UniProtKB/TrEMBL annotation:
This is Resolvase. Belongs to the site-specific recombinase resolvase family. GO terms for biological process: DNA integration. It comes from Komagataeibacter xylinus (Gluconacetobacter xylinus). PANTHER family: DNA-INVERTASE FROM LAMBDOID PROPHAGE (PTHR30461), RESOLVASE HOMOLOG YNEB (PTHR30461:SF26). InterPro entries: Recombinase_CS, Resolv_N, Resolvase-like_N_sf, SSR_resolvase.
Length: 226
């Protein structure tokens, strides 16, 4: 059963001066001494942002790969190991399942096995869900903005367009003409979708029924009453 410390600084200035690393190391060794534990190794993460998940950091990855059941990790602060609650929650759950103890000095000690662990997990779960919601909202907002500006968002290129060099959707004149005819047949002539497609094919315009459905749906003409 090994005992490991983990320290991290994110800026080159902190790395050069070494003060932050030294302070964290002293805190960890002092805490371990109080518990009668002997540190086997301290993993020092130098110049790595906290936004990088623990498993993607050089020393963080090495630490996680080294762990065995019964091992103990000590870190000075929650934000030295994690910046994201999603990352923290996932790693903590994995450590708990592997019977690895994680002590965070700023949170009062063992956050995987003592009385405060339930509170920590509850708080992290709530914060992690809020983080996921914010990420979803940002993605939705970005996609909506890109769509409003005619940006290609991946997937099947919609009928009537091609992707330009800058990633914009560029109209294809011939296919736009087919769309115009389809709209006329649907909204003015009141033809069902299949009849619209048959009429287009008879004029030499080949378009699948699913593509036609998408085109008219985007223009609010799929459920047009007739």
């Amino acid at each position: 059963m090994a005992v490991y410390g983990y320290v991290r600084v994110s800026t080159s200035r902190q790395v050069d001066e070494g003060e932050s690393l030294a302070v964290q190391e002293r805190q960890i060794r002092g805490y371990a001494m109080q518990l009668g534990l002997e540190i086997d190794r301290i993993f020092m993460e130098k110049g790595v942002s906290g936004s990088v998940p623990l498993a993607d950091r050089p020393q963080g990855k090495a630490l996680l790969e080294r762990l065995k059941a019964g091992d103990t990790i000590i870190t000075a602060k929650l934000d030295r190991m994690f910046r994201s609650a999603v990352d923290a929650l996932g790693v903590l759950e994995d450590m708990k399942a592997r019977s690895v103890s994680l002590h965070m000095i700023d949170l009062g000690g063992d956050v995987t096995g003592n009385g405060i662990s339930k509170l920590v997990f509850t708080i992290l779960s709530a914060v992690a869900e809020a983080e996921r919601d914010r990420i979803r909202e940002r993605i939705t907002t970005v996609k909506a903005d890109q769509k409003s500006r005619g940006r290609y968002l991946g997937g099947k290129v919609p009928f009537g367009f091609t992707v330009g060099n800058g990633g914009d959707l560029v109209e294809v004149p011939e296919e736009q003409e087919v769309i115009a005819q389809a709209m006329h047949l649907r909204t003015k002539m009141l033809l069902p979708l299949r009849k619209v497609r048959e009429a287009l094919i008879s004029k030499g315009h080949h378009i699948s029924l699913s593509a036609l459905h998408r085109v008219l749906q985007e223009r609010g003409a799929v459920h047009f009453k007739h």
